[in-house]
Design goal:
The complex is a heterodimer of chains A (250) and B (414). Chain A has 250 residues and is α/β, with parallel strands linked by helices. In chain A, 37% of the residues lie in helices and 29% in strands. The relative contact order of chain A is 0.19. Chain B has one domain. Classes of the chains: A alpha/beta (250), B alpha/beta (414).
Chain lengths: 250, 414
């Protein structure tokens, strides 16, 4: 069956262990949420899966549809079909959004073929309209001087243009006002389909009112300690993370 | 490098041989007497130059790489220059050799223009002594040239040297966009190309000059520019350096009258063993002048850049606004950039700033691009083009903007 499957994953940074024996199975067609307090390793998980060079994987595996990701270069992982929406999208001066996304699409084309400009802009403008991004953003430098909301919209735009098989949204709700949160969530919901798995990482339950997950996992000190349905998020919200600490200790 | 080896360097060159010069002069016996005298005088000055091994104006550079000791001769063909200028209405655009024959007085008028004189005097003087061609461009008063003028310089291979001496004169309130391209005749072998350009921008005139240098990687280049900007005139000078094995740039702009504006921008992509040695000056001689200098170098492999820039504000140049920046992006552990920004301010009411930075490619930026499936080489190319964009977007011609981006991208591919 198609899934993003993480088994016994352990990873560290500068010798400090962050992920310990983490396992998670995200089948295509489902939306899972990972919740957890600051420092529980949520963002590290997303970066390790995307191939960030700062982290060292000591154990475990992570596959998408059976293909191992760990050890691959970040660009190879992306082309295999994994998309990471960054918590803090990076500003890249002088590189326009249009040129950037076109380069990313070009990287997926067979040798000798090029992205057709007319088709490309048609699709780009459609998606921008959907997400509520002004078309003049295409010429602007990537994330350069963008507000928090504009950066997150830009992540969703990239995600919808690249058509990934699995998406990880790392704290996409952070820095968003309520209107932006709603629009960004709509953008994510539009991408829900039987062929795609989506992993939503968040600190707060608020986002999950807009993107309703099939499953919720709670992360604590580098591993998944509790999994349940969407009700778990509400429970967590009312009881607070201290509840998890007590559960783990028990 | 010590004094004796530098002295050897000069005397080793063919150009220092009296018989070589005399043969050259004989071949040009058709030229007017004043020009023959002028060449002789400059040649003698070049021979008399004594190198000072501690010359600050060569600091951090590799002077030996920019000498003429390996020159095998002067290029003789007459096809080193071509023009693409659809409409000659309101302007004179001629090759130097025709000017010498048909309009020597106009040439004599500008022959007193000198400089920039920022360290490579020997090469400069040889250029004045041996230049057999180059272009003369004059835009008539009040004339606005709508379509850009394109001038192609072609450098020779086979160890041959060629000197182009160019004059660009804008009469008051005229306007033009000028594109100059410097290319090699072929990729086979290297030569020595020197491009000496004197620019005079008259009152209220405006010029944008775009120079794109894409010589083969076996060539040597000296690019000298001395530019005078008069009252309320605007000169925007943009250079794109992609080719050559070693390049010395000396670029000086003098704001000689009130309200002059001078913008000097440069982008350089270094790779393999390329050396780019850049010396600049923004000289403010009069009030209310504004100058902006932006030199950006991106360096791959074992390439090296040296930037030395000076903002000089003279006594009378009150209310000057001058800015200078040199930014270097290193894409390899073996690349090197040296930077020496400088200020010399004699007036008291001025606004001047300068800055230099050298940094490696930002790992987070790179990861972000990679995480979208873009390969490392394409990501680096995008980041470099992005780094250059601040200068590229100054180009006033959309068609040429794309061409410049494309040339840079192609330099990555080879």
């Amino acid at each position: 069956m198609s899934s993003l499957q993480i088994e016994n994953l352990s990873a560290s940074i500068n010798g400090k262990p962050i992920l310990e024996n983490l396992s998670l199975d995200l089948p295509a067609g489902e939306v899972h949420a990972i919740m957890g307090p600051n420092g529980s390793g949520k963002s590290t998980l997303s970066k390790v899966l995307a191939g960030h060079p700062d982290f060292e994987v000591s154990e475990g595996s992570a596959t998408i549809d059976g293909q191992e990701l760990l050890g691959l270069e970040p660009d190879e992982i992306s082309r295999l079909g994994l998309f990471l929406a960054f918590q803090y999208p990076i500003e890249v001066p002088g590189v326009s959004i249009a040129n950037f996304i076109r380069s990313a699409l070009q990287a997926r084309m067979p040798e000798g073929e090029t992205v057709k400009a007319v088709d490309y802009y048609k699709e780009l403008y459609e998606k921008m309209d959907e997400i509520g991004m002004d078309r003049k953003f295409t010429a602007r430098s990537l994330n350069d001087g963008f507000s928090g909301g504009e950066k997150k919209r830009c992540e969703i735009l990239q995600m919808s243009m690249l058509n990934p098989r699995y998406c990880i949204l790392d704290e996409t709700d952070s820095g968003l006002d309520i209107d932006a949160l709603r629009e960004v969530s709509l953008g994510v919901n539009r991408m829900r389909c039987p062929e795609r798995g989506i992993l939503v990482i968040t600190h707060y339950q608020r986002l999950l009112e807009y993107i309703v997950p099939d499953k919720v996992h709670v992360m604590w000190e580098g591993k998944i300690v509790l999994s349940g349905d969407k009700e778990l998020a509400a429970e967590l919200e009312s009881k607070g993370y201290d509840w998890i600490r007590d559960e783990v200790a028990a | 490098m010590n004094l004796s080896s530098e002295k050897n360097q000069a005397s080793n060159s063919l150009f220092c041989s009296p018989s070589f010069f005399n043969e050259f002069a004989d071949r040009r016996s058709w030229e007017p007497g004043w020009l023959a005298d002028f060449r002789k005088e400059k040649w003698e000055e070049a021979i008399a130059i004594q190198s000072n091994p501690k010359d600050e104006r060569w600091r951090f550079s590799q002077k030996g790489r920019l000498g003429y000791s390996k020159v095998l001769g002067l290029a003789q063909s007459e096809e080193s220059l071509s023009f693409e200028s659809p409409d000659r209405n309101g302007l004179i655009l001629e090759k130097m050799e025709r000017m010498i024959l048909e309009n020597p007085n106009a040439l004599r008028e500008v022959s007193n223009l000198s400089g920039p004189g920022m360290g490579a005097e020997e090469s400069y003087l040889f250029a004045r002594a041996f230049s057999a061609t180059g272009f003369y461009l004059r835009i008539e008063k009040n004339k606005r040239i709508d379509r850009p003028l394109i001038i192609n310089h072609t450098a020779d291979g086979d160890g041959l040297a060629r000197f182009h001496h160019n004059f660009i004169v804008l009469e008051p309130f005229s306007e033009v966009i000028l594109i100059e391209k410097i290319n090699s005749a072929d990729d086979g072998s290297g030569g020595f190309f020197t491009n000496l350009t004197h620019v005079e921008v008259g009152e209220g005139a405006k010029i944008q000059r775009i120079l794109v240098q894409d010589l083969n990687l076996k060539s040597s280049l000296h690019n000298f520019e001395n530019m005078i900007v008069r009252k309320d005139a605007l000169l925007s000078n943009i250079a794109v350096h992609l080719g050559s094995e070693q390049t010395r740039v000396e670029s000086k702009g003098s704001l000689t009258e009130d309200g002059a504006e001078f913008e000097n921008s440069s982008i350089t992509l270094g790779r393999e063993n390329q050396l780019f040695d850049q010396r600049t000056m923004q000289q403010h001689l009069s009030r209310n002048g504004k100058s902006t200098l932006t030199f950006k170098n991106a360096l791959l492999d074992k390439s090296k850049s040296v930037f030395s820039g000076l903002i000089k504000v003279e006594n009378d140049a009150q209310n000057t606004n001058a800015y200078q920046t040199n930014r270097n992006l290193l894409l390899s552990d073996n690349a090197e950039a040296d930077s020496m920004p400088g200020l010399e301010i004699l007036a008291n009411e001025v606004k001047c700033s300068h800055g230099a930075t050298t940094s490696k490619i930002d790992e987070q930026e790179l990861f972000y691009l990679l995480s979208r499936g873009i390969s490392r080489s394409v990501a680096e190319r995008l980041i470099v083009l992005g780094f250059f964009e601040e200068v590229i977007e100054k180009i006033n011609l959309d068609s040429h903007l794309e061409e410049v981006r494309e040339s840079i991208a192609q330099s990555f591919g080879t």
